[in-house]
Structure formats: C-alpha cells, structure tokens
Amino acid sequence: MIAAETPDAAKLLLVEADGAMRRLPRAALAALFGPADLIVANDAATLPASLHGTHEPSGGEIEIRLAGWIDIGDPTRFIAIAFGAGDHRQRTEDRSPPLPLAAGDRLSLGPLVATIETLLDHPRLVALRFLGEARAVLSGLVHYGRPIQYAHAAAPYALWDVWTKIAADPIAFEPPSAGFALDWRMLVAWRSRGVGFATLTHAAGISSTGDAALDQRLPFDEPYRIPERTAVAIRRAKARGGRVVAVGTSVVRALEAAADGAGGIRAGPGVAYGRIGRGTDIRIADAILSGVHQPGESHYELLRAFADDATLDRINAALVGHGYRGHEHGDSVLVERASRAVDVDDETAWARGVRRSLPLKAKSGTSDVN
C-alpha cells in the first residue's frame, strides 16, 4: 500500500515565519487556517509518460519519458528524455544512455511510432513527434504508457497511484505530489471553517533526468491555466489580509508567472519559465505546502525563496532526525514565507491556530522541534 492510501499515518513539519518549527500529524492541516486564508492547489492529472520500445535504426532498447509540451494544444509533439535498456528499478543516475540518436530516427513504442524531430544539445534530450492523429496517440499512451517512476518504489505504479484526489485535465508528466496531502475530509473541514480553496492547472514536469548537468536545466518551461474564479479568490484573500497557501512548487511557479505586479494575478493560460530560488521575490504565495525534497533538486531550490539557508538546514535536520518520508507519496512540510511578518491575529496566526484545535500534549502527536 502506498503512503497516499494511509493519510492518517502521514506527518507534517510546520515552519513558521520566525523559523519556529512544530511536528504535527498531517491531518492537522484541516485546522491550521482561518476564514481569510486561501489554499491553492494544482488539479492537473498525470499522463502515463513512460514508454518502452525499440530504436528502429539500431534495434536497441529504448525508454522514452515525456518531459515537456512543445505545444500543449498538440498532443503529438513533446520534449522527451531518452534512456537505454533498463527500467525504473535501477536508479535513474545509473541508467544507461540510449544508443546514438539522430534527427529522423523512428522509435517503435508499443502501438505507437514516433520520429525524433531534433536533438536538443544533449544526448538524452530530444523533440519527438508521434505519427497519427491526436486521438490515436492519446489512446496509445493510455493503453501502453506507464507513469514515470523511480527506484525508491519497486512495485509498478498504476495510473491512479499518481493522480491526486482533485485530478482533472491530464497534462502533467509527473504528479503534482504535494496534492497527495489533500483528501475530501480536509476539504470539507476547510469549507466548514470558511477557509477558501481554489485550483489552477499546471503541467508539472519531471523531477530527474539521470544526468547532473541536464538536471540543472529543470524545471523545463511548463504551461499553466488559471481560472478567473481563482484569480478573483486570490485578490479577495489579499484584500482581506489572508494568506495564500500554495500546495506544491508547481502552484508557486504558476502564481509567480501570472503575478500582475499589483498583488493579484492574470487569469488565463501562460507558461512558467526558469527557476525560482534564493533571491526570488515571491509576490503571491505567503506559504508553501511541499513534500520532502533533497538539496540540489529544483523543488528544494524553490524553498530557498521562502526560507534562508540556516532555516532550511534546521528543517533538513528535523526531517531526517524524526524519520519524515520523502518522494511523491511521503510526508509534508508547510513553510511560511520568512519575509512576511508573523500575524498575531487570533484567526490567522499559525501557532494559535494549532493551539485552538490541537492542545500541545504528547498524546496529540504534536511537539516543538528543537
């Protein structure tokens, strides 16, 4: 059973704006926010983006991992990462490279045939086009593709293992995994407390290419769509002095790409470019709910925009020392942006929100982190 199926066992590390930390059960998220606050989550569903097959010119084995959209309106053309023989049970960084590739090479991928349009200045990185109509390509992906997966989970994932409870349009290449923290009980609890909840759709990309130099280019450009109702909800939360809490790095990227410079965001489609990290001035998100990530990963680097290095070092020590689980079905970290002054209003202060709902006793499962 994957961790996402056992939410009651999941843990949360709460990191306040002043650097104070508290260990909680993840279910405590249901009571941490007040009526002025807004939670924003990514509702993208995950494509079965891993395809095994044959490199026709050489007859060699190949795995293609779809990693980015060339045109989100055209489901036949993608940016992709290529691997040689092997599968997810090997560490990505230990996977063999593909046999030499060239523009025009045909790939036989189960019921699908693709051609390499161009090499993108790295032996693993290509632009490819699937032959056939869009409907047939999507059907082939659904029936033959597998979710992208890494060696930390040996048993093959089914597609529903990488869909969050709020999954809608299938445009992500890996799951927007911070959203695994959400379930319907939590959404009902937020509604009962008057906490706002809104969604956007962001094409979350891959987390690892198997090559250190190529990993430095992550995340690739990622398209998103922000509904007008979400833009309105953000403007309303900001006007009321509430916090905008981004569920995952993909939400932060979309919100920052769409920020209008006046405290709100532009509704509609767009593309998130480049990395967010140390020195980035976060304009929209006041806090981020994230998974447990490792230093050097693009997801971790984004946290540098919310907390300084000393705080991140303390967070890492707490996560390791208290056995927090990493990867897409692991535990969660909630980090309030350090540049925001701590709000002492009873409805919105983090610590008072915890104390109102979960008295700080050992039996509650809560404790301060030293």
Number of helices: 8
CATH class value of the largest domain:
Alpha Beta
Query: What is the H/E order?
Result: EEEEEEEEEEHEHEHEHEHEEHHEHE
Classify the fold: give the CATH topology of the largest domain: QueA-like
The mean pLDDT is 87
Structural class: alpha+beta
Total E-strand runs: 18
What's the helical proportion of residues?
10-25%
- Determine the CATH superfamily of the largest domain: QueA-like
| Gap between N and C termini | 32 Å
Radius of gyration: 21 Å
Described by strand count, sense and barrel closure, the largest sheet is: 10 strands, mixed
Number of domains: 2
Biggest sheet: strand arrangement: 15-13-12-3-14-16-17-1-2-18
Query: What is the level-2 CATH architecture name of the largest domain?
Result: 3-Layer(aba) Sandwich
Summarize the structure.
The protein is α+β, with helices and mostly antiparallel strands and 370 residues long. The chain is built from eight helices and 18 strands. It has two domains: 3-45 and 158-358, QueA-like (3-Layer(aba) Sandwich), CATH 3.40.1780; 49-144, Beta Barrel (Thrombin, subunit H).
